[in-house]
Specification:
The chain has helices at about 5-25, 40-60, 75-85, 105-110, 120-130, 140-150, 170-180, 195, 240-245, 260-280, and strands spanning about 30-40, 60-65, 90-95, 160, 180-185, 200-205, 225, 230, 235, 250. The radius of gyration is 19 Å and the shape is globular. The longest helix has 23 residues, at about 5-25. Strands 5-4-6-7-10 form a five-stranded parallel sheet. A three-stranded parallel sheet has the order 2-1-3, sandwiched between helices. Strands 8-9 form a two-stranded antiparallel sheet. α7 (about 170-180) links the parallel β4 (about 160) and β5. With about 280 residues, it is an alpha/beta fold. It contains ten helices and ten strands. Bound molecules: guanine (GUN). The site of guanine has 9 residues, from β3 and α6.
Length: about 280
């Protein structure tokens, strides 16, 4: 069976839209997300456009700052600092990856915890590791919602995460661990990879390598979530060789239409939660 992120996201988006109306009625302002993009990577531009459109759809304000590659790092940091001080801004997002030469860590460190709607900063990752999540990275959080939408009990399952990025693999592993899965994280240096993936009841793949996971690497009846978005000959495909793998699985997410739409709805959710928390702290 297919897990369409778009369908799972639709329920969340409806809830966010209705809660946003309540928020506006109560606080006489709209939740506001500020998005910063540096350079002209076409994939990043598409993601940012989708995020801005998502804001419109649920009734948020959005602010968009586009900088050409080569803009001084300090100028970007100054922008973040001024957004951090701006009381009308609830979330600040810097689209990643930044072009070569920028110090991602140094730039992101200027986003205050209360506005870190990507959940990328050290304190939000730390709380997640402690099992007391505050703001959780959007893509892994979206994957959890997709897994929960199957109704399959996660507790006690063998979960294998393929990929160890700070943005997806690591927080994904923590979320699955917090859900009482037995979690294995595999990566580019893992030896005999298929031996691990074949044991996975739940396999989450986020490595950015087109159609890397093939049928021989997957257990019969597994749930497979494909986080990859790759472009091959102008066509989008995931990290999983969908056609060969799908018949072996109980549930699988397609690309496109799988994880992508979930990421945006979780970002909007995080932004609304940040707006509510900030109002409650006034
Ligand atoms: N690039 C790819 N995914 C993401 C994400 O979730 N947030 C940001 N800021 N950049 C990304």
């Amino acid at each position: 069976m297919l897990i369409y992120g778009k369908e799972v996201a639709a329920t969340t988006l409806e809830k966010i839209t209705s809660m946003t109306k309540d928020f506006e009625g109560k606080y006489k302002r709209k939740p506001t997300l500020a998005v910063i993009i540096v350079g002209d990577d076409p994939a990043s531009q598409t993601y940012v456009r989708n995020k801005i459109n998502g804001c419109k759809q649920v009734g948020f304000n959005s602010l968009s700052y586009e900088y050409p590659n080569g803009t001084a790092q300090d100028e970007i940091i100054q922008r973040i600092k001024s957004l951090a001080d701006d009381d009308t801004v609830d979330g600040i997002l810097v689209q990643l990856p930044l072009p070569k030469g920028y110090d991602e860590e140094k730039i992101l460190a200027n986003i205050p915890d209360s506005k870190d709607v990507d959940g990328f900063n050290a304190s939000n990752i730390g709380y997640l590791c402690l099992g007391r999540p505050h703001t959780v990275s959007c893509t892994p959080l979206g994957v959890m919602h997709m897994l929960e939408s199957t109704g399959v009990q996660l507790s006690g399952k063998n979960a294998v995460v393929l990929g160890r990025s700070n943005t997806v693999g690591k927080p994904m592993a923590m979320l699955l661990l917090n859900a009482n899965c037995t979690v294995t994280v595999c990566h580019s240096k893992t030896q005999n990879l298929a031996e691990f993936t074949k044991k996975a009841d739940i396999l989450v793949v986020a490595i950015g390598r087109p159609k890397f996971v093939t049928a021989d690497m997957v257990k019969d009846g597994a749930i497979v979530i494909d986080v990859g978005i790759n472009r091959v000959d102008g066509k989008l495909c995931g990290d999983v060789d969908f056609d060969s793998v799908a018949p072996k699985t109980s549930y699988i997410s397609p690309v496109p239409g799988g994880v992508g739409p979930m990421t945006i709805s979780m970002l909007l959710y995080n932004t609304l939660m940040s707006a509510i928390a900030r109002e409650n702290e006034r």
